[in-house]
Amino acid sequence: MSIQENYHKIKSQIPANVELVAVSKFHPVEKIKEVYDCGQKVFGENKVQELLTKVNELPADIQWHLIGHLQTNKVKYIAPFIDTIQSVDSEKLLLEINKEAAKNNRIIKVLLQVKIAEEETKYGLEIAEAKEIFSNYLENKYPNIEILGLMGMATFTDNKNQVKSEFLVLKSLFDELSTFKKLETLSMGMSDDFKLAIECGSTSVRIGSAIFGVRNY
Ligand SMILES: *Cc1c(COP(=O)(O)O)cnc(C)c1O
């Protein structure tokens, strides 16, 4: 199937109230343009350098989401234009985003990335850290940040029960924090597990390979 056929097929499987972030990492701008031409406006990249080279070659109305681990010394490069940073995994990073957002006279939208997977390799806040940051946020410690919600990645496994229980952990934290201030975005689900994620309450899925095909690392 062509990229455009893949895109329409995925779109048809996602309810209208669930956002689709098309994950374009490792794919060239020509392919991104094909998906953009189908009407897609929200794209996700996981590396700052790659994102910077693509931004200038693509339409200005694309909303770029950063979905990969972000080093504090790189925040300044994306602060002028980034729509949402989904991968906030430390308070230090959040403070730096807040500072750079202020310099650019912007409010930057973020998601707190919470570690729900078993794997040691996955970045993310512990649940207690996420709660602490959220309570600082409610006390206005980060005036140039808007916390839209949470992001998480489940363990890479065929065990659906495990993936489901990890998604439900994130959903329950989302509901708990929402009692203090209504959150709008629960970002969970990728090409292989997005249907399960939506069943578990996801409001935003991040899909790469099911649209663009396999990546050549
Ligand atoms: C690459 C990536 C995705 C997309 O993964 P696919 O399996 O290709 O859909 C989603 N989220 C994050 C954080 C990623 O790094």
Please name the defining characteristics of this protein.
TIM Barrel, eight-stranded parallel β-sheet, globular, 217 residues, 9 helices, alpha/beta, binds pyridoxal-5'-phosphate
Textual characterization of the structure:
The chain has a single domain, classed as TIM Barrel. It is 39% helix and 18% strand. Strands 7-6-5-4-3-2-1-8 form an 8-stranded parallel sheet. It is α/β, with parallel strands linked by helices and 217 residues long. The model has no long low-confidence stretch (mean pLDDT 96). The protein contains 9 helices and 8 strands. Helix 6 links the parallel strand 5 and strand 6 (145-151). The chain is globular, with a radius of gyration of 17 Å. The chain binds pyridoxal-5'-phosphate (PLP).
